[in-house]
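Sample intake sheet
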Amino acid sequence: MYTALHLQELLKAEMRSGAVEVVVVTPAPYMTYQPFLPEAAAGNISPRHVVVPLRRVLTRCTIVIGEVTSVDHAKRTATVTTLASEEEAAGPLEVHYDELVLAPGSISRTLPVPGLADHGIGFKTVEEAIGLRNHVIEQMDIASSTRDPAIRDAALTFVFVGGGFAGVEALGELEDMARYTARYYHNIKPSDLKWVLVEASDRILPEVGEEMGRYTVRELRARNIDVRLDTRLESCVDRVAVLSDGSRFPTRTVVWTAGVKPAPVLASTGLPLNGRGRLKCTAHLTVDGVEHAWAAGDAAAVPDVTAREEGKECAPNAQHAVRQAKVLAENLAASLHGRPLKAYAHAYAGSVASLGLHKGVAHVYGRKLKGYWAWFMHRTYHLSRIPTFNRKARVMAEWTLAGLFKREIVSLGSLEHPRAEFEMAAGPPPPPPDTAVTADSSPGAKDSPEAQGGTRGTGNTGDSADPRASGDTGATEGTGDAKNGGSTPD
């Protein structure tokens, strides 16, 4: 998005005359500002304010909602599957180009952990963030209403795997939100909730430095959060999280934030990749050894020219990606006009992380902050970075209102299955209960309406006696189960 945004300004005259066309192919019609996902999950920011609609900001570009499945750079052709591809007999689109910019980002890096694909929850998209919020509140509802202690304990146990920014910030914000929400449950106390953070290495948040990482561990443990370092998730089969240290946690929530990997489309491009699957790039953001191909962001392995160590690459984070996009657009415009390219150079400024409301850590330009001021810097920095004045104003307004009013504690889990209620109403009626058989085994007795009280008891004519007299208690229970199964998601 940032590359196209700069290109439409740098090539305004060419695009107006029709000499240049910028086509943006993307699976979603919006750009997600991922640093705000934890706050969206906690309910501090509305989900629609975490995303930027592409059609609103890229007014001079052509937006194609679809997914690039392969690239034949020798023929300058990309194969694109759109939302209409399944409906059309023609199949995928063939998009021809002169210059190719690859910035597909990354996806969650998973491991072959038994049960993870069935029970794990990611935290990479706004849909996953909101779904996780709904899930956490739903588990509190389950715990509040069940009579089974085992179900209650599993519902109130939340396991997060990965001690990077995504895992720590998501855990910190959601624990803060759930602790606040517990005050509205008559039988749930904050101490009843069990939060577990699992990290395979010996520290968390390596980006903020070892000292701030140790402070974060102390801060989380002071909030009764179980931080397990040098520990791995071995299995989560049957909703039981088994850790490498031998611990077992029956849980209905396993959040996987253990790293990312480049988008799979890179493997189908035929372009040179490094050992981690990222595109080999030059400091000018061109694909190494390939003409007319450019890359930036998580998918690009760009040499860090400011580093003292030789061969070091820029970290795959937003701080570099946004700045790389601007340089890429400038270099692409320069190449079209025959001007020399410039190298991308940016010294790492530091990192900030939120640990919940009024809590955070920061290591910026050599200065270390913690607590309220680190949290304030986190919000200020990201407010300045989220694109468009419209989004800045809306986020600022929501933060202001959140300081004046109480938190929202509503779970809208039904949004994930919006047609469930209508499908239940429009679907076929539940089957009638089994016919009851009286002790009298004579054919006449079996065939009489009186002997078939179970069938009469389910009628809506109003002439039946108490349905319980039929001896078929499954009539009411069966209907109730069908309704619940149709309208309540797992």
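Comment: Confidence is low (pLDDT under 50) at residues 438-490. Residues 126-145 form the longest helix (20 residues).
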